[in-house]
Design goal:
The complex is a heterodimer of chains A (367) and B (275).
Chain A (H helix, E strand, L loop, with lengths): L2 E10 L2 E11 L4 E5 L6 H9 L6 E6 L2 E2 L5 H4 L2 E3 L11 H10 L9 H14 L15 H13 L5 E5 L7 H18 L2 E6 L2 H7 L2 E6 L2 E6 L1 H6 L4 H6 L4 E8 L2 E4 L2 E4 L8 E6 L4 E4 L6 E2 L1 E10 L2 E8 L8 E6 H7 L6 E6 L1 E6 L6 E4 L1 H4 L1
Parallel strand pairs in A: 3-8, 3-9, 6-7, 7-8
Antiparallel strand pairs in A: 1-2, 1-4, 4-5, 9-10, 11-12, 11-14, 12-13, 13-16, 14-21, 15-20, 17-18, 17-20, 18-19, 21-22
Chain B lengths: L11 H30 L3 H9 L2 H34 L5 H7 L2 H4 L2 H12 L4 H7 L9 H12 L1 H14 L2 H8 L4 H30 L2 H7 L9 H10 L3 H31 L1
Helix pairs in contact in B: 1-14, 3-8, 3-9, 3-11, 6-8, 6-12, 8-11, 8-12, 9-11, 10-11, 11-14, 13-14
Classes of the chains: A alpha+beta (367), B mainly alpha (275).
């Protein structure tokens, strides 16, 4: 079921939670609503479910206007952030709830309900816990029961509010994979809210980045990471190394640091953004870049070694971070306080006179 | 080896003093009077006790008291649930004010409440004069007693429910609605089971107060023996008649209700804590 959101606005008193949201959520895909807290992502999700009434705008499911439709009639599955399991019911009673409250003529027989509950519990691999109460379950188990309960009426739309927010890292990763495979198997349209960019990038087909009640960018995870349209998206999706400066004669310069731009660019104030993997560390400056640093810290984190760098003779708001392989680290043995240079391979230039960033590549220039 | 270090505020001297003080005060102010009530009531033996209860006016007072409680408790239960639902599940201007207004009957002396009802609904009050045209007399009759009792006991249920419902939040109710529950199904299957023990607790307190209310009722009842005399008023009446044993017999009934109330309340609290 395709979900179309057409000019949605929502205010809570003075605070405008959603402003002019236009969005299409494609049928059968997993879409992430990603943003910092207060960006309106949960309000948008709740508006889709019908738990909030937008002040203006329309919501359509498969082309049909559901804006005026009560939550009850929208027939979406919703998984709440804190699961919201019925505390006085057992696991199987929780899962059966959606079927038991159906009007008499639509309600399946008791036997059929029992069979369906059993089937749903098997789907979430928790059939053995059918008689337990929510208070006796772990976080991950509660989450899966909440999911089974939401799926009981076979909704075509599944909405999840911070589904893994309250779980520890390992359980979170497991559940993520499991949800992904479940989604691939059952092909419902899912939307989930998260503030964790890694989660959004790993799990979804499409990511909607939100900021201050508006949509900042909608793209596939890969496009979002490699071609962010704004500084906000760039900053929000992972570590950024920034060189703020001024362009003059095709060279971006600040203090002792300069980078020769591979494409011509008008003279202006600008900022060059680089991801940690788009930068190499060398002993000597290259032809195209002179970015001197002192090594501030070396952190061995799992598969790579992360080097924190303090600009030497120029300034940036935050320290730079560059990842190098263990073999490169062992070969060179850099130490704290060593002087080194960064050489950009790919960078993203935000000029004040351009609305969109320019992605630059130094590969050809170097070749 | 010396003993383990004490936690802050947990010295043995302090602990023993406080425990001792609590026990002495409980015995002096709570337990002894209770013992006195029952020994006095039984001063003429069981036969005398039963005889005093079967007194025509005492029986009528018991009947009226139960009748008042039977009207008041259901009324205030429904009212309390509605109010708690309103205050915790909806946001509207004046919500906080309403939550504060619920406490007025707690803050106002019951005698003042009775007086206000008398002034408003009595034969000289403005509502009373209007009702008088239709020959409706509320004061010095059972409707007046019920009205002031409802007033005095109306906060108990809501007071119990509001903090609990606030703490439980509306997540489960939202989940139920998303799953297709109607308003009634939501209330019966989700809200009510979650609040049932607190609700029972509120109902018990309401009942205890409705049965025991003296001040407000004494202003509006007129204490007509065999007509508008409730059990607490009857205790005073008998006492003034120098019928000490009779007065204590009636009082022992009230004390008995209080003890039952305490027992049920303890069970309700225990069940609530396990949910």
């Amino acid at each position: 079921m395709t979900i179309e959101i057409d000019g949605i606005n929502k205010s809570f008193g003075q605070f405008q939670a959603l402003r002019d949201i236009d969005l299409t959520i494609p049928d059968g895909q997993l879409t992430a609503l990603l943003g910092p807290s207060g960006s309106g992502k949960t309000t948008l999700l709740r508006s889709i479910a019908g738990l909030e009434n937008p002040d203006r705008g329309r919501i359509l499911f498969s082309g049909e206007d559901v804006t005026g439709l009560h939550v009850r009639e929208r027939r979406v599955g919703f998984v709440f952030q804190h699961y919201a399991l019925f505390r006085h019911m057992t696991v199987s009673e929780n899962v059966a709830f959606g079927l038991k409250v159906l009007p008499r003529r639509e309600r399946p027989s008791k036997r059929e309900i029992r069979r369906r509950v059993h089937e749903l519990l098997e789907m979430v691999q928790l059939d053995h816990l059918a008689g337990r109460y929510p208070a006796q379950l772990s976080g991950g188990q509660k989450q899966r029961i909440a999911l089974a309960r939401a799926m009981a009426r076979r909704p075509e739309i599944l909405l999840l509010d911070e589904p893994f927010g309250a779980l520890d890292a390992k359980v979170r990763k497991e559940l993520r994979r499991w949800l992904r495979s479940l989604h691939d198997e059952l092909h419902f349209t899912s939307v989930f809210v998260t503030h964790d960019q890694e989660e959004a990038l790993e799990l979804s087909d499409q990511v909607v980045v939100m900021r201050q009640g508006g949509v900042e960018q909608v793209d596939s995870p890969l496009a979002l990471y490699s071609q962010p349209e704004s500084r906000f998206v760039f900053n929000f999706l992972g570590q950024v190394n920034a060189l703020p400066g001024a362009i003059s004669g095709g060279v971006l310069r600040q203090g002792d640091a300069w980078v020769r731009l591979p494409e011509s660019c008008d003279d202006d104030d600008a900022e060059l953004y680089l991801r940690p993997h788009e930068v190499r560390l060398t002993q000597e400056p290259s032809r195209d870049a002179h970015l001197p640093f002192r090594i501030e810290a070396i952190n061995v984190i799992g598969a790579e070694v992360r080097v924190e760098l303090r600009p030497d003779g120029w300034e940036s708001q935050e320290l730079w971070e560059v990842g190098i392989t263990h073999s490169a680290f062992n070969a060179r043995q850099p130490k704290r306080g060593d002087r080194c240079y960064a050489v950009p391979d790919v960078g993203h230039l935000f000029c004040d006179h351009l609305s969109e960033p320019k992605t630059l590549s130094w590969y050809e220039a170097a070749g | 080896m010396s003993s383990k270090p004490h936690r802050v505020g947990d010295g043995p001297v302090i602990r023993r003093t406080l425990i001792g003080l609590a026990v002495v005060l409980t015995v002096l102010f709570l337990f002894m009077p209770l013992v006195v009530i029952f020994t006095q009531a039984l001063a003429q033996g069981w036969a005398g006790y039963i005889g005093n209860i079967l007194d025509e006016y005492t029986l009528h007072a018991i009947g009226l008291t139960l009748f008042v409680a039977l009207l008041t408790v259901p009324l205030n239960t429904v009212f309390g649930v509605f109010l708690a639902w309103l205050v915790t599940r909806f946001s509207f201007p004046g919500r906080r004010l309403l939550a504060t207004l619920i406490d007025i009957p707690f803050a106002v002396s019951p005698v003042v409440a009775g007086l206000l009802y008398l002034l408003l609904y009595g034969s000289n009050g403005w509502a009373g004069q209007w009702l008088g045209q239709y020959d409706v007399e509320l004061m010095f009759a059972w409707p007046g007693i019920v009205m002031v009792t409802v007033f005095v006991t109306c906060p108990f249920v809501a007071r119990e429910l509001i903090p609990l419902m606030q703490q439980q939040g509306r997540d489960e109710e939202e989940a139920a609605v998303v799953l297709g529950a109607s308003g009634w199904q939501l209330f019966r299957r989700v809200t009510l089971p979650n609040i049932r023990w607190a609700l029972l607790y509120g109902v018990i307190l309401t009942n205890a107060r409705a049965v025991g209310e003296f001040g407000a009722v004494s202003v509006v009842s007129g204490s007509i023996r065999g007509e508008t005399n409730t059990l607490p008023l009857h205790v005073e009446l008998l006492y003034q008649d120098q019928n000490i044993v009779g007065a204590f017999t009636a009082a022992s009934l009230l004390a008995g209700i209080a003890l039952i109330t305490l027992a049920v309340k303890t069970i309700a609290e225990w069940r609530q804590s396990r949910v």
